[in-house]
Amino acid sequence: MCLAVPGKVIDIFKENGLSMGRVDYSGTIAKVCLEYVPEIQIGQYAIVHAGFAITILNEELAEYTLSTWEQYDKLKDKQSPDILS
After folding, report:
1. pLDDT (tens digit, 9 = 90+) per residue, 4-22?
2. 32 exposed, middle or buried (CB, 10 Å; 0-12, 13-18, 19+)?
3. CB under 8 Å to 53, separation ≥6 — which residues?
4. Nearest alpha-carbon partner for 42 in 50, 16, 34
5. pTM
6. 19 near 33, Cβ under 8 Å?
7. Nearest 5°: phi and psi at 78?
8. Cα–Cα nearest to 8, from 58, 68, 79, 51
């Protein structure tokens, strides 16, 4: 199962002829391939799978998704480990 978390594109560059970028996942930076979303721009959000950006998200949806993950983390911290594992 893959759980996709939006990441914000903070840099775009070429590497070995491929469009690449750096994506910020709430402070964790990852290098990803942007070839499948050639129209993406710095500041936009993407869903990444196996190192490839596969979808561009608008900011509203990305922020909603990130907020939902934050709520989950808070709930998880309050619950017994047996319930959410």
Report:
1. 788 999 999 999 999 999 9
2. buried
3. 9, 21, 23, 32, 33, 34, 36, 37, 40, 46, 47
4. 34
5. 0.77
6. yes
7. -85, -20
8. 58
Compute the distance between CA of residue 43 and CA of residue 28 in angstroms, rounded to an integer: 15
Between CA 85 and CA 77 the distance in angstroms is 12
Yes or no: say if 53 and 32 are a contact pair by the CB < 8 Å rule.
yes
Tokens matching residue 1: 């199962």
Closest by CA position to 5, among listed 74, 57, 41, 79: 57
Given a contact cutoff of 8 angstroms between Cβ atoms, the answer to whether 43 and 23 are in contact is no
Asked if 45 and 57 count as a contact pair (C-beta separation under 8 A), the reply is yes
Distances (CA, A) of 52 to 2, 7, 18, 39: 13, 12, 11, 14
Weakly modelled stretches of the chain, pLDDT under 50: 1
Which residues are within 8 A (CB) of 73 and not within 5 positions of it... i.e. 6 or more apart?
A: none
